[in-house]
Amino acid sequence: MSQNIDFQTRFQAKIDAEIKIEPKDWMPEAYRKTLIRQISQHAHSEIVGMLPEGNWITRAPSLRRKVALLAKVQDEAGHGLYLYSAAETLGVSREQLLDDLHSGKAKYSSIFNYPTLTWADIGTIGWLVDGAAIMNQVMLCRASYGPYARAMVRICKEESFHHRQGFEILLTLSKGSEAQRKMAQESINRWWKPALMMFGPPDSESTNSEMSTKWKIKRESNDELRQRFVDVAAEQVTFLNMTLPDVVWNEERGHFDFGELDWEHFWSVVKGNGPCNKQRLAARVKAHEEGAWVREAALAYAEKRKNRTEAPPQ
Ligand code: FAQ
Q: Is the pLDDT confidence value at 164 over 70?
């Protein structure tokens, strides 16, 4: 018991001194669990997040747009892989994580349960969804767990590129015909509040923040990051000559107000009842089942190579 207290004290001292925790270091079970929870939800979000945009690869309006979108969607798959690998260093298997996603047990970001109805949605996702993701994830590059922090550095660089390609799509539409401008504004209106909910519930309802902040996994609160994102987006939207619904400057606060968010709706999406939850999970399960032969072939190849290196010389 006293030995455990000693470990706890040394662990927290390392965190306070900004020394990274590495896979073989001692860590409290609750720290390991919360990292597996957050990293795997994040990995699932990247993989499920490929689906709404993937729907537009065949319909992108030019070869240039198609190539950029294809590359973006592939990047998201790569982010999923870095994150699943980081989660595996904590002693959980990838099969287990995927089973939890496919059975509906594991969460993933609420934002990917909305449909992509128009081409403008691809611009809006890049600008607002990747924009919100970056705002939230920059602090994670300094997360106390080494493998997560290192994965996040690369992810954030790629997300910045996605953010710009999204904004550029909207900028092009904003300079186009009346119909294109309308399409862009309608898309922004539809995605704005769901994007704000990506930051998680209000601080008063955030169950994990206290410990995650103590352990320096999180460094800023859900509400702080949400407000910073609103302030930045409210400036950026002026370059599009468009508006964000319900966003008004508040002189007294020195920030933009953004109206009420419907948290009841948010929880219903998180619990599986959003507009596309069932469709998204079905698409993931189908892709996993249809990819079984690839996994089997890769494992058989690895096994063959292993047997070859272990065989005694003739
Ligand atoms: N959706 O106590 P908190 C991307 C859950 S990646 C669903 O405040 P925490 C890139 C939360 O898990 C987007 N569930 O939680 C991309 C918890 O439930 P639990 C994903 C949510 O962990 C772009 C409960 O509510 N990013 O977009 C959501 O301290 C384009 C209470 O919440 C990450 O995952 C939500 N929005 O803070 C890809 C970043 N919010 O687990 C493709 C890493 C909260 O106790 C295309 N994660 N919940 O059962 C984080 O930074 C944190 O986990 C938060 C939540 C900030 C998401």
A: yes
